[in-house]
Amino acid sequence: MSVLNVNILPCLSDNYTYIIQDKSSDKVIAVDPPVVEPITNFLNKLNLKLDYILNTHHHADHVDGNLELKKIFNCKIIGFEQDSYRIPGIDIQLKNHEIWKFGDEAVRIEHAPGHTAGHVFYHFQKNKLAFVGDIVFPMGCGRIFEGSTKEMYESVVKIKNLSNDTTIYSGHEYTISNSKFCLKLDKNNSELFKRSKSVLSLRKNNKPTIPTTVQLEKDTNIFFRCEVQEIKNNINMKNASSEEVFAKLRGLKDNF
Ligand code: ZN
Ligand code: FE
To answer: What CATH number is attached to the domain comprising 65?
Structure first.
């Protein structure tokens, strides 16, 4: 199995673009580039070219670098077939569940609507990496713009159902604010307490709090913990289903 290097590039005020490099072939992917400069600077320094762009969804802060990067590198742009009309410069349209080969890695595209109707995530199955855009963040989940709460819930569960040792790369640095919300409603969670402290010190040193893992989110992300009785009690939803708890939490977070 070829080893993939993932580099984290902060862009705009709180976005992350990921540069994935296959060490055996020097092929390079950029995930969700909103701008050009940080990416060209990084690639030039390492004397690398850009081969592919992967887009998780059509929002400007994830695709606005597409066309200019394509002009510079002649790279191929990859996205979800259903959203192709609003992914600038798309070359390769993937269907839900389709596998795209990157060297010997099998990248599975999964439709996960809610934040937008055509949102997808990319699961690098051998390396156990998931690039999830604005579906899930450390200790949080994306806002619902184009879908139903049910869709968003099911999309979060799709990520929760990946193996516990899957590494998750999210689209934004929202972690401190997310942790405050979790702490308010899950106050006896010692893992959450520990993690909240550690992300504070990471941010103080201007370091990303990303990546995370499925296990870490199960332990600390309230949106992954909708079945926990204590959380249900804390929001006066003792007998509610996980999906109902999720809906309530998403609403509370919107006004937090
Ligand atoms: Zn977005
Ligand atoms: Fe975004």
So the answer is: 3.60.15.10
